[in-house]
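Researcher: I'd like a structural prediction for the single chain below. Treat it as a standalone chain; there are no partners to consider.
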Amino acid sequence: MMELLPLLTVLLLAHAVAILAWTAAARRRRSRCYLLGYVCHKPSDDRKVSTETAGGVIERNKRLGLPEYRFLLRVIVRSGIGEETYCPRNVVEGREDSPTHQDALDEMDALFGDAIAELFARTGFGPRDVDVLVVNVCMFSPAPSLSSRIVRRYGMREDVAAYNLTGMGCSAGLVAVDLARNALRARRTRAVALVVSSESIAPNWYSGTDRSMMLANCLFRCGGAAVLLTNDPALRGRAKMELRRLVRANIAASDDAHACALQREDADGRVGISLSKALPKAAVRAFAVNLRALAPSILPVAELARFAVPLIYRRLRPRTLHGKKAEAPKINFKTGVEHFCLHPGGTAVIEAVKQSLGLDDGDVEPARMTLHRWGNTSASSLWYVLSYMEAKGRLRRGDRVLMLTFGSGFKCNSAVWEVTGDMADKGAWADCVDRYPPERMANPYMDKFGWINDVEGDTLVL
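Model: Treating it as a single chain, here is the predicted structure.
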């Protein structure tokens, strides 16, 4: 009997180790996150914002004077936005100054009825297959919630875990992905998650004269995306991409950063989004915080060493023999990723990221073309940028894609995806991708309204 005791002990220990190994492996499998598919919403053509449409909206606002006209013309000419973006129907109908609750619901229903239904049709999954639902719309939070509206519309199961995010700004698309991934990871069984990202423009059009709040009207447009994720390794063969890394940085503890993109009232009590001059500084700071956490996990050791050695030398010897500061080293992110899916928040945002990461025009082309064709659609913008890359046939198996977003708070979120499947769908770009990039990016606003700058004084009689 005593001779069997050591053997029994070894067997028990081996059994315990096997269980721990199996549990760890199962947990690791559940922590995987695969992109099964995504669909970007394309609103109806009668909602396009042409030069004439934009001019009509501005002309209807009797609060604006010649100084405001000149300011808006200067902003829209530099915006990088073309003439095929979309606005809500109440703006088309001339009711931007008096939106209704139903206007906001109609804007959301157009997305829900189009993108989600198409996503189910493309992927072969149905509403009853969804275990987790995450909806993010920053500026509209009705009761019942928008997630409940989707559950009801599509007849989803009673045990679907539904989440509704608001107030998270343009960076909420990756926040929603992170929440969906964690919800999938927490489940005991393999599951499927539906993520819906959009923004509500209909009730949030600013009709005042505060210049920091007028900027949003020039940049933000209607759009949205529906995304299907899973943690089931058995579905990897059907997936387009696998999520490799997701990093979130939030510097809201800083007063300046917290207030640089803020919903507030103007001096006349009109509500809008104020974009302050402190925003670029906050974006740079949040960007740096995010990259410090992201870079070590995606860049090869050789590139990290190439960056670290000169940096250490520079700190030890801040000046060269000639008394000049040593040049700061730069990380080459192209050694870790092949494609850059940048948030098209505006030409200045795209250019700042381009300079910071040492990118070229080809790297930022998808973001610039998305801004031109769709405008800034807030949290869903990243999916339009990704769709452009896919429509152009640039994504190959094994390629890595860096998604980078900025949003109020102030936040900078990033994600690295690896292409695992065929990506040849033209999606929302199907009818126009062959025209991009266009020979001429300049919009015709200056040609049609440039005469405003020739009017003397600050009074204009129309």
